[in-house]
Amino acid sequence: MDIKMAWRNTWRHPRRSILTISAIAFASLLLVFMLSWQFGSYDTMINSALKIHTGHLQVQAKGYKDKRSIRLVVPKPTAVSAILDKTPGVAAYTFRANAFSLVSSKERTYGAIVIGIEPVREANISTLRKVIREGSYLSEEDTDQALMGKLLAKNLQVGLGDELVVLGQGRDGSIAATVVKVKGIYSSGQDEFDRSSIHITLKNFQDVYTMRGAVHEVVALGKSLEDMPEIKKAVATGIEKMDKKHHLVALDWMELIPGLIQGIQLDLVSGFIFYIILIVVVAFSILNTFLMAIFERTREFGVLMAMGTSPGRLTKLLLIESAIITMAGIVSGIIAGSLITWYFQVHGIVISGASELMKQFGIPERMYPQLSVLSVSIGSGLVLVITFLTALYPALKVRRLRPVEAMRSV
After folding, report:
1. CB-facing half-sphere around the CA of 409: CA atoms within 13 A
2. Considering only CA atoms, which of 125, 102, 48 is closest in space to residue 366?
3. Residue 178 three-state SS
4. Per-residue model confidence as pLDDT tens digits over 377-401
């Protein structure tokens, strides 16, 4: 009976109700799309940032992440690769070795990280091959060739074919020295990386730095970010069984680049501030609707109370009316928002005018929202809670009405 009466009252002023429902629907639609866009863009940006160099997971010697000592190595990388081969969800992996060295041209000398890579495996893990702007990528036979960052090449005043003298310290404490020619120059979009790194083949690195088969990083890429907790758990378990002295650790991307997740959290917070402002605007629309309803129906409420209707029942009636309007708006917004998001999730969104900039950072020009239960429920849940609390205030005002005074109102 109360629901039927609330339904009738909702449509007493159809224009006002439709406008309120439309406001709630628009807020819900916008929240579904924007949250899906945020989650989708985070996934794309994380993968793009990690594929430049870091990877989703790395196996290192304990303490290597902080000290970067050339002596902290993975002594038997093939044993780690056997674990990765058996781990479901691992898409690819490679071996790397790193050493800080002095890199000299005819004109200048700079300190840089020399990175030894396996060119074929590295191409499956990172976007290094795709971000080469001049020259070409390394091959396994290029024992006297190197790739270097664009900013480092500019600082050293070198170009393709120029010679570089590399001087550092080997794993055994001996002097490590070699001469390489610049085969390719890359621009990853990460200035620090482009300013301070050169790449040579792992075979050449092993000889120059006397690594004796050891590496510093076993870098793995998962099929998806969602698989990483299970992959890390499986790899860590395998390493623990293999490495009885616990010299090795498995680190995921959140441990390797904590600043990236902090940046995402900061963006989420700023986004939620905008969403809260949007919902508050909608809440004022609801508040206005129900305050108007109470002022217009004060005489009616007075008559009903004089006839024996309790204030509690009138409050309940108004809350049901609020729920009808709110749920109609939220459901409409979810359906419309999900359809729009699904369309762009399939076809993507091209950010006009930013394609060249995004390519420099290894980010695809077409971005895809990611519709999920989370992106649908968070915004809609916030709208539901805030609009209900907003409608509660005018509904509770009815409890303070006096029948005689209410019937005298105009």
Report:
1. 16
2. 48
3. strand
4. 888 888 888 877 777 776 666 666 6
